[in-house]
Amino acid sequence: MRTAFLDESGDLNFDHGGKNVPRYFVVSVIICDKIKVLDRVVRSVFLSIKKNMRDKRSGRVFHANKERDGIKRKMMSLLAKTNVEMTSIILDKREHESLTSSDKHELYTFLAYEALEASGAGKCERIVLSRREKKRVINEKMVDDLECLLGVGDTACIREPHVLSGLQAVDFLAHAVFSEYEFGKRWMHEAVSNQDKTLAAFCIEHNPAPEQQGNYLSYFEYSKRYRKSKGKV
């Protein structure tokens, strides 16, 4: 079953003058024909950890922002060798000072839609998102809005990372892209530099015109930042 997994890294806090507020927000998508491919990647990374260190972990679930750099590099290296498609959308919040944190739910839905649309996820049989809100009604509305925007019915759902390993894999991808833009760390580039893969990233560039500020579907213009050579390993 062709499946798209989606997750994000960073936050949608628009306190532009605040300390420790990330500049970038990233939404990433991984598409695979068989979810077992990602199950094997996550399992391989887990088994690569020394047994005494595995025993100290609270469980088998990875959280990219809490893991050691070695684990992050291992995960990205294995992902680069698999038959998956990876796409990310990067929001530079400094370029959108008109936005506020009160916009975050609608804006996140829009960014998720753009990431899914750019990746071709509308043709997938299933779209899986990682739960980011505690309130069920917010999650359900987001799923309904995404299905409506993509023109698909009953294909999107929200799951926990411990249920589907693909969500852990896409968490690492989003974190890798975020780390590159926010901190200059290049785990993603190191992983794919020697691989014949398609890796697309799109950057949100322009501020909205005043008449567009109520319409998120015309809110941003995108330019292709880079694209690796086409092909799959």
Structure description:
The chain has 233 residues and is of the alpha/beta class. The protein has a single domain, classed as Nucleotidyltransferase, domain 5, CATH 3.30.420.10. The chain contains seven helices and seven strands. It has helices at residues 36-48, 51-56, 69-80, 104-119, 136-150, 165-183, 187-192; strands spanning 3-10, 24-32, 84-92, 126-130, 156-159, 199-204, 222-227. Strands 5-4-1-2-3-6-7 form a seven-stranded mixed β-sheet, with helices on both faces. Helix 1 packs across helix 6 and helix 4 (104-119) packs across helix 5 (136-150). The protein is globular and about 50 Å long. Residues 204-233 have low confidence and may be disordered.
Descriptors for this entry?
alpha/beta, 233 residues, 20% strand, disordered C terminus, 37% helix, Nucleotidyltransferase, domain 5
Q: How is the secondary structure organized here?
A:
Blueprint: E1 3-10, E2 24-32, H1 36-48, H2 51-56, H3 69-80, E3 84-92, H4 104-119, E4 126-130, H5 136-150, E5 156-159, H6 165-183, H7 187-192, E6 199-204, E7 222-227
Parallel strand pairs: 1-4, 3-6, 4-5
Antiparallel strand pairs: 1-2, 2-3, 6-7
Helix pairs in contact: 1-3, 1-6, 3-6, 4-5
